[in-house]
Design a protein that fits this description.
Oligomer: single chain
Strand content: under 5%
Radius of gyration: 17 Å
Number of helices: 10
Distance between the termini: 19 Å
């Protein structure tokens, strides 16, 4: 069934439901909102409009989380992450029309699934990633984000090894997207995607977004670190599996 052919009020209702459900998770963990909301929004409004409106919605959530949790931000780590990912994004934008995506995408998905399974079923190390692993991971996250706007899963591989408590993890991942999404938003604006339909979807999306942030914050405060970690790894597993499928 072609969801784009549905009556407009049905499409808007489905879009608002997708924003609500996905941003409960986004507010709870600081990531995964785009991963969960982009697929249904693409089916409803096409890839360009979906990417444009979901990026802005994600940015709004992340800025709010960054401000609310600013005491947990590690400026040194944040600068390191953003610097390497910006370099990676520049490479990814250049490689988009050069590299065989049929090879790169499954490889990316396989790495994410492997990391998620390792953290779910094996004892976790208390040490941070060594530089020879951390730097390629951050560059890779930037490359994937520059090519497909979906490098968050690989970034989380670095973050789960760097930030050991849920508040620091959420604050820093939200801060990363608050900065990097500005690049994607400028690119979408340059393409002329910020039109009347975009403004309508954004305005309507803010309504469920407010309730999703409130509920996500409540759940975040209720769950313990172990539950937070397992949720994070399950989301990683879901992201990798969706990429492979």
């Amino acid at each position: 069934m072609d969801l784009m052919m549905l009556p407009e009020f049905v499409k808007l209702a489905l879009f608002m439901a997708a924003v609500f459900i996905s941003n409960i998770i986004q507010a709870l963990t600081g990531f995964a909102g785009v991963m969960l909301s982009i697929p249904p929004t693409i089916l409803l409004y096409g890839p360009d409009m979906a990417k444009a409106v979901i990026n802005v919605i994600c940015w709004l959530v992340c800025v709010l989380l960054m401000v609310q949790n600013r005491k947990y931000i590690n400026p040194k780590e944040l600068f390191r992450i953003v610097a390497f990912m910006l370099v990676g994004m520049a490479i990814g934008i250049h490689l988009y029309n050069v590299v065989n995506q049929a090879i790169l995408v499954p490889l990316y998905g396989g790495i994410i699934v492997a990391v998620a399974l390792k953290n779910l079923f094996m004892k976790q190390s208390n040490s941070s990633l060594p530089a020879w692993i951390a730097i390629p991971v951050l560059l890779g996250a930037g490359i994937i984000h520059g090519m497909f706007a979906s490098g968050g899963a690989l970034l989380v591989v670095y973050l789960v090894a760097t930030f050991r408590d849920k508040d620091s993890f959420r604050a820093n991942v939200a801060s990363v997207w608050s900065i990097l999404n500005l690049v994607l938003m400028f690119n979408d604006y340059s393409k002329g995607l910020y039109n009347a339909q975009f403004l309508q979807l954004l305005a309507l999306g803010v309504i469920p977004l407010v309730f999703a942030i409130w509920l996500g914050n409540k759940i975040h405060d209720m769950i313990n670190q172990k539950m937070f970690n397992r949720l994070t790894y399950c989301l990683l597993l879901a992201a990798g599996s969706m990429i492979l499928i």
